[in-house]
Amino acid sequence: MRREVRQWVERVVQEKAPQAPVLEVGALNINGTCRDLFPQESYIGLDTQEGKGVDMVGDIMEPLRILYYGFNTVLCLETLEHIAQPFKALMRMHDCLIPGGLFIGSWVFKFAIHHAPDYWRVTPAGFRYALEQAGFEEINIETEGEGPVGVFATARRPNEVAT
């Protein structure tokens, strides 16, 4: 994990105090993790392959029973560029959250191709649009570095009004 991503997540955790249960999408620890910054009770690291940091092997794009559990926090860092359908994946993450739940994510923009498959890059406006299309509100977009190198976002699933 790039140092800049870790520093941004540390700040978000201090400001927003994310609550358990936490779902991390793309949890395989290839070059660092932010897992230690979050409540560990009911923390589930999901990835398509086994390895360090992975509690459950599965694909966010597939129907998995755990995804209907109702998470307070969904974390997706440096992963969306590796998902063939990132807009659909964000919709799935939105649906995993309880009303008012917090999404914390990063997506590279100006960065070398890495860890195949590597499909997508996103601008700040593109990340905002993808989150809006997925149904998120209270979207906050930040950028990192020249270009920018990365785009960071927090957002919330709306508090649905009971009918």
Q: What keyword list fits this structure?
A:
3 helices; single chain; 7 strands; 163 residues
Q: Name the helicity range.
A: 10-25%
Biggest β-sheet description = 7 strands, mixed
Total count of domains: 2
SS elements, strand count: 7
> What fraction of residues sit in β-strands?
25-35%
Radius of gyration equals 14 Å
User: Which blocks of ≥5 consecutive residues have pLDDT under 50?
Assistant: none
Class inferred from helices and paired strands: alpha/beta
Topology as a string of helices (H) and strands (E): HEEEEHEHEE
Strand order of the largest sheet: 3-2-1-4-5-7-6
Q: How many individual helices?
A: 3
Gross morphology:
globular
Taking the alpha carbons of the first and last residues, their distance comes to: 43 Å
Mean pLDDT: 94
Structure described in brief:
It contains three helices and seven strands. It is an alpha/beta fold and 163 residues long.
Describe this structure in words.
- The chain is α/β, with parallel strands linked by helices and 163 residues long.
- It has 2 domains: 1-68, no CATH class; 86-103 and 120-163, no CATH class.
- It is 22% helix and 27% strand.
- It is built from 3 helices and 7 strands, in the order H-E-E-E-E-H-E-H-E-E.
- The chain has a 7-stranded mixed sheet, sandwiched between helices.
- Strand 6 and strand 7 form a beta hairpin.
- Helix 2 crosses helix 3.
- The radius of gyration is 14 Å and the shape is globular.
- The protein starts with a helix and ends in a 7-residue tail after the last strand.
